[in-house]
Amino acid sequence: MDRTAQLTSRSTEFEIAYDPPGSSDSLHVRAARVLEANWTGRATVPSRSLYPHQWSWDSAFIAIGLRHVSPLRAQTELETLLAAQWADGRVPHIVFNPSVPLDAYFPSPDFWRSSTAGHTAGAPRTVQTSGIVQPPVHALAAWLVHHADPETSRSRGFLARVYPRLAAWHRYLLHRRDLGGGGLVSVVHPWEQGMDNSPCWDAPLARITPAPARSFRRADLDHGAAEDRPTDLDYGRYVRLAADYRNAGYADGQGEFAVEDPAFNALLIASEHALARIAEELGATGTARHARAERLTAALVERLWDPAAGMFLCRDLKGGGLIQERGVSGLVPLLLPGLPRDLVGALVRTLRGPHFSLGDRTRLAPSYDLLGEAFDPHRYWRGPAWFNTSWLLERGLRAHGELHLADALRAAVLHLADTTGFAEYVDPYTGEACGATGFGWTAALALDLHHELHQELVKGAREGVSSPATGTFDTSDKGGDRR
To answer: CB atoms < 10 A from the CB of 320, how many?
Structure first.
């Protein structure tokens, strides 16, 4: 199908009600209201109720959407996060708001004890943070934010100020976290990878002795249904890993959990390419960074690609070998421009095939294998579909010329984000809202895709094409046959 045909196609199942960004009832306005409600003055919380602090990769995704509302605020979002960076280069996964009560979220600042337990690693003294990290989306976000308003960015010296911090962040990951010696970065806690409760972690976590249930109180259950959240057993293991890491002074390579994850490394590679472009914008050369990104891509293929699975898998460095579980993390490398074409084709087939069934039985890509024994359409990262992974997949599909599938995925994201009140995540079959509503990155990434659609509409009008692509996914409830 050629591009003009795609731009004029209309779904027989549904059609995105497209409103110009300025209209009072547009998705743009509704998403912007969510971001305004979650804004604290210097940063945006993911959710006022469930996540009342600043989260690392949330802020990167939020900045990507904020750039369409206020480029200055998007810059501030990233600057606030990076101001809490440790001297060793790590960007902590939570920056705590001191005005929020300690019992509003666990683990709280008094658990992490960053300024004391993290002293040797150079934790800041003036702000409390966690001691673990999250996926490095930040350089990609900074580059996109710069392009939203290059004049303001240059006048404020935005890129010049964040570049050294982003470079130090990447240096930390590449030098301190290559625990397998093969060039890839390892995560030392499931929370670092961002897909906290994925079945991909079950085997490595099974070796961990959980912390006693009486030693912590789960604040998350005050705001979410227990059947949708991690089990007490898994949570006890998360707490044990975090406490052991803290007690070791946040030194890397000593713990019982070390996993090379495809999404974490793919996002580092994408951000290395972005950091190269930032260097070029600042008058330096980006050649070495582009070359490093290519080497990392080769290492990703060598260490994590599984031809039989038709996707990337996680590697358990403590247990040895690839973890034979299919998570959406293994599809995220579609984002990479240097991925071999045959691997791109295999990933697209896997995405559309029975394990993820995108465009057939599922509205958005599930977070875990539909055919896996641990699949649960509602439990946190064990099956539900998330909007940030859909945004990454849409971007990857579009970059590799899979425009029809990208258009349809974009349409589904916009429809479900809007109709669920910008839910944290959804049932992949029915689109039912799960978790928190008014969720920061859902609103931000819907805003970004809405802006992209508007740009296509404008371009199409100039070229004499009457309507943008709306996609062809069937959004009817197909939840009856879930296996």
So the answer is: 7
Structure tokens at 99: 């005005």
Number of residues that this document lists for the chain: 483
Contacts of 175 (CB under 8 A, 6+ apart): none
Per-residue pLDDT reduced to its tens digit, 36-78: 999 999 999 999 988 999 999 999 999 999 999 999 999 999 9
Query: d(Cα 334, Cα 396) in Å, to the nearest integer?
Result: 5
Could you list the active site residues? 196, 424
d(CA 263, CA 372): 19
Count of beta carbons in the 10 Å neighbourhood of residue 470: 26
**In contact, 416 and 455? CB cutoff 8 Å:** no
How many helices (H) and strands (E) are present in the chain, helices listed first?
18, 10
| Tokens matching residue 205 | 């976590």
Q: What is the DSSP string of 162-206?
A: HHHHHHHHHHHHHHHS-TTSSS--EESSHHHHS-TT-GGGHHHHT
- pLDDT tens per residue across span 328-380: 999 999 999 999 999 999 999 999 999 999 999 999 999 999 999 999 999 98
